[in-house]
Amino acid sequence: MGGLGIAGAVVTYAGTTAVAGVDLDVAVGEVVALLGPSGCGKSSLLRAVAGLEPLAAGRVAWDGADLADVPVHRRGFGLMFQDGQLFTHRDVAGNVAYGLEMARVPAAERRDLVDELLELVGLAGYQRRPVATLSGGEQQRVALARSLAPRPRLLLLDEPLSALDRALRERLASDLHDILRRAGTTSLYVTHDHDEAFTVADRVAVMRAGELVQVGTPAALWAAPADSDVAAFLGYRVVRVGGGGRLGLGPQALQVVGVVAASSHTPGPPGSNDDGDLTGRVTAVGFSRGRTTVTVDLPDWGEQRAVAAGVAAIETGDLVRLRLDPAGLVDL
User: Where would I find the ABC transporter domain in this sequence (predicted)?
Assistant: First the structure.
């Protein structure tokens, strides 16, 4: 298969194993995200693919050709990091054109490519802007255009949006999805944010303690996490159910359907009520993205978040009735 092939990759630092025998393929034109918490080995694996870290064992190949003896600058890979690492003494066009200059691309062709790339990343007309005058999001767009300019056969992105605020990260993640596909660039994208990974990538590879624990499309991972730890990392709240099993509650799995009078109901174990609903005591009330949310203390499950859309006048201390939405649940 063409593209990137990683087989049995091991990376060690002073006797500590950071990457423990990872196998992963990235097809030409595909965007794959390496997802996991800090210290799980995802950036070490990315650096090994780039040639910045040696492999203690295993193989990194492109189109089947082993890259073990190929130096970083001859691999044909592009790199984009968290801070962008722009050249402050160059304007926007000068930054984007840097790799083209190193490749001795003729000036007229460079100008055309810079104009094309700035339009691609949403910065048409920014050529003469000093990079210090740009916002954080604009600077990352310039860094992306610079990374794409030499037309790398593989683009490696290491937490490129993590320094930005949440709203900007969400907007740029969506833009990155579109830009990478319009450019047709094969990409390996490192992030600790599952929403970002799900937005940008065609497939997501979940890492834990140096190992690859699950690979799949965002929809497949969300529908069937490999285990409780993966489920919790993806945003499920894992609770114990009868018989020793575990259940993953998605962000909207618990829904408040009414407030009950304290004299008519007392909290009981989840699912124990005659009508099949749950009851619990509200310990906090909030508001998020246009919806009222509550924290409810449920016997056996402890405090859990619930959505209270359509139920007005909920207060801390209220006893509420909740319903489980089957579409938001996974068995673990």
Answer: 4-234
Residues 66 and 114 in one domain: yes
- Eight-class DSSP state of 64: T
Burial of 331: CB neighbours in 10 Å, binned 0-12, 13-18, 19+:
exposed
The contacts found for 270-276 with CB under 8 angstroms, 24 or more apart, are 270/239, 270/241, 270/298, 270/299, 270/300, 270/301, 271/324, 273/321, 276/323
Give the model's pLDDT for residue 84.
67
- What are the beta bridge partners of residue 79? 156
> What confidence tens digit (pLDDT) does each residue in 175-218 have?
999 999 999 999 999 999 999 999 999 999 999 999 999 999 99
- CATH at residue 102: 3.40.50.300
Domain extent, residue 34, equals 4-230
**Distant-in-sequence, close-in-space partners of 185: CB < 8 Å, separation ≥ 6:** 29, 148, 152, 154, 155
Q: Give the distance from CA 9 to its chain's centroid.
A: 22
